[in-house]
Every structure is written in structure tokens, then in C-alpha cells.
Write a structure and sequence with these properties.
It is built from six helices and 13 strands. The longest helix has 22 residues, at about 85-105. α3 packs antiparallel against α4. The model is unreliable at about 180-185 and about 260-270 (pLDDT under 50). The two termini are about 30 Å apart. By secondary structure, the chain is α+β, with helices and mostly antiparallel strands. It has helices spanning about 20-25, 45-50, 70-80, 85-105, 160-175, 185-200, and strands spanning about 5, 15, 30-35, 60-65, 110-115, 130, 135-140, 150, 210, 215-220, 225, 240, 250-255.
């Protein structure tokens, strides 16, 4: 089983604090910038209680190409029944991440995926994609519970090995069907999936899996969808996965939905 490393930041990943740090994702060897707040705000504890107790439920939602204001309007509706002491700072935080991606990518619209769900084995190691010619900087934020796991590019044998693993894992995952967590009635079908997750064949021997620190937002490199499945350099995208188990979590994922400088309303919808 691969060890989990929750302390260090491997090569290709920067611990940053400012927009200038995020802008460094244009550096060839950098795949992600992890931004964590200096002090944990109290409303996050209240938010975690609401999500875990299922008093705040957001069904898996994809907003294909929204402006900052359109996302804010959607968020107000989604959080209408949530205590204002939590809803207001949460809306500000999510909108701030949307704004940062827009500024970094120089776009007026983004694709946003947001949901409250318990982790399953649905989402193993993968890279996120953007539409053709779109900027490649996006973000993910896990607001409570186990955070995103990722690997160092230095520990990846090659993208050819990674995509071979990803292709096989997708087939095995479909076969597992009703047992996505590997602990239900379809456990026999899911056993190969569990084995693949515990010993990813695309990693060098004894390579650790790293975990994003709690309360952090990750700004990271996506890959142009036309290059997905190609033997591109490892440093061109951030290889990551959801945790395999845990309580319900609130997750926000933001990526560019149009080419740079296209202006609000003129870009194509994302399909990544």
C-alpha cells in the first residue's frame, strides 16, 4: 500500500500565499500552488457540522459557463436555508476562488462543479481537462473532511504508464458497479479496484501519496482536452484523486470555460 504523506510539499508543488504565487503556474516544472489561510475561521467548524449532519445538502451540480455574478446568484439560492453566519462567509470564499481563477486565466466565465457527498471510489487518480485552447489554471477546495490526495511528478514513471492505469481503472470501476467503495455487495468486483488504488502501477516503488492540508485551496494545472490520453510531459498536469472514504464533504471545483480574453458570454462551455 502506498504511504500517505500529510506534511511535506513535493517537487512541482508550491505552498503559496498570493496571486503572484498562483501566477507561477506558468513555470514549466510547477503543477500546483496550495494556498492555506493563516488562521482557521470559526465558521468552517459550523459548516462541517451542517454538511456531515446533512442539514446542508447540495446535489452534484455543474455550472457549465458562468460569470462571477451568475455564480454568486446561484450560490445565494443554494444557501438560502443556511444560517447567515455560515452562508455569507462561504459565499464570499467560493466567489473569491472563482474570481481568482478568472483573473489567473484571464477569462470571464468558468465551469463550476460543487456538491456535498461522502467520498467513494468513483474518482481515482486523474487529471482535469479544459476546452481546446482554454487556459489551464483551475482550482479545487474541500471545505471539510478528508482532503484531495495527489502524487509528485517525480514519482510518476511516465504519462504513458499513467494513462494505461487510468484506462484500466475506468474499466474496473464500471465493472464494480454497485460497490464503488469496495465494501458493499459488489465487493468481489471492487477488489481489483481497491488493489489498483492501494498500489498504483504508474508510481515508482515506495512513492508516497500526498494529501492537501485542511482548509487549503489548490490552484493547479489542467490539460487541454485534445492532449488528454497523450504522452505529454508529467509536469503539464496535476495528478490527483478524491479520498476513498469519509463523511460527507463540501467540494468546489473551478476551471476555465473559454479562451483567454474572450470576454463575458463569448466563450464555449467546458466539457472536461
Amino acid at each position: 500500500m502506498v504511504p500517505i504523506d500529510e506534511e511535506s510539499f513535493p517537487g512541482g508543488v508550491l505552498r503559496g500565499d498570493t496571486a503572484r504565487d498562483i501566477a507561477r503556474l506558468t513555470d514549466p516544472g510547477l503543477t500546483a500552488v496550495i494556498v492555506a489561510p493563516g488562521q482557521r475561521p470559526g465558521w468552517l467548524d459550523e459548516l462541517a457540522e451542517l454538511v456531515v449532519s446533512r442539514r446542508l445538502v447540495i446535489t452534484r451540480t455543474t455550472l457549465s459557463a458562468v460569470s462571477r455574478d451568475e455564480f454568486a446568484d446561484w450560490s445565494r439560492t443554494a444557501l438560502a436555508d443556511t444560517d447567515r453566519a455560515v452562508a455569507r462567509p462561504l459565499l464570499e470564499d467560493m466567489t473569491g476562488i472563482v474570481e481568482q481563477v478568472m483573473a489567473s486565466a484571464d477569462v470571464g466565465r468558468v465551469m463550476v462543479r460543487v456538491f456535498t457527498e461522502a467520498p467513494t471510489r468513483r474518482c481515482g487518480f486523474h487529471v482535469d481537462t479544459v476546452p481546446p485552447q482554454a487556459p489551464t489554471t483551475g482550482a479545487v477546495r474541500v471545505y471539510n473532511g478528508p482532503t484531495t490526495e495527489y502524487v509528485s511528478g517525480d514519482d510518476v514513471r511516465s504519462m504513458k504508464d499513467f494513462y494505461a492505469y487510468l484506462s484500466r481503472r475506468e474499466r474496473v470501476s464500471r465493472q464494480a458497479g454497485a460497490g464503488p467503495r469496495g465494501d458493499g455487495p459488489a465487493c468481489a468486483a471492487a477488489d481489483p479496484l481497491v488493489a489498483m488504488d492501494e498500489t498504483p502501477s504508474f508510481l515508482r516503488p515506495h512513492a508516497p501519496v500526498h494529501r492537501v492540508p485542511p482548509d487549503a485551496t489548490v490552484y493547479f494545472k489542467h490539460i487541454d482536452v485534445r492532449r488528454h490520453w497523450s504522452p505529454h510531459p508529467v509536469a503539464d498536469a496535476w495528478i490527483h484523486r478524491s479520498p476513498m472514504q469519509g463523511p460527507p464533504r463540501l467540494v468546489l471545483n473551478v476551471s476555465p470555460a473559454q479562451t483567454a480574453s474572450a470576454g463575458p458570454g463569448r466563450g464555449p462551455a467546458a466539457h472536461g
